[in-house]
């Protein structure tokens, strides 16, 4: 099992240099939830995001991710995760929402709002997920000369999301992930994205 884990880690790191990297709608978490009394702080790559998470009640935790660099944009991704099966596999339902602002075209002021329901399953070490991405992009345009006018273009898109991830460590967590996003509007054949998170878990679980 240790040899398999090392091979998988090497493959993920190799793919990270071969496949397009992008901001991913993920907080880099396995199906395991933090227990009440536990919290985590971490960073995500390649978007240099800040990830915060804490246990709320038994089998449920919440998280938020602030990111955007180095893509001259910024985004906020928040999610709530509930683990409803613990044996023989961990199975968790995760509902995420995202707000993303692109700064490449400040005149157009593009903004993206997204909803990302996902089912995560596997173990604390290896896991996968399947979900659906739904997003709305709003762009604002202005005329440069009189008569001045303003209009908004709204674009909706949705597509399947499939992910594969791994997690190493106890208090310090390293979570690399490969995510396939099918978005027929912007990427007819879908896009593969690579991300990873490094987290530190703090606190002690409160007894039920």
Instruction: Give the CATH topology.
Output: Lipocalin
Give the spatial strand order of the biggest sheet. Answer: 1-2-3-4-5-6-7-8-9-10
- Approximately what portion of the residues adopt beta-strand conformation? over 45%
Q: What is the average of the pLDDT values?
A: 80
CATH architecture: Beta Barrel
Kindly describe this structure.
The protein is elongated and about 65 Å long. The two termini are 33 Å apart. The protein is mainly β and 208 residues long. The protein contains one helix and ten strands; from the N terminus they run αββββββββββ. The protein has one domain: Beta Barrel (Lipocalin), CATH 2.40.128. The protein has a ten-stranded antiparallel β-barrel. Mean pLDDT is 80; it is low at 4-23. Helices cover 8% and strands 60% of the residues.
Quick recap:
This protein has 1 helix and 10 strands; from the N terminus they run H-E-E-E-E-E-E-E-E-E-E. It is mainly beta.
Short key terms for the protein model shown above:
208 residues, mainly beta, Lipocalin, 10-stranded antiparallel β-barrel, 10 strands
Question: Which helices and strands, and how do they pair?
Answer:
Blueprint: H1 2-18, E1 39-45, E2 49-57, E3 60-67, E4 73-85, E5 90-102, E6 111-122, E7 126-142, E8 150-166, E9 172-183, E10 187-202
Antiparallel strand pairs: 1-2, 1-10, 2-3, 3-4, 4-5, 5-6, 6-7, 7-8, 8-9, 9-10
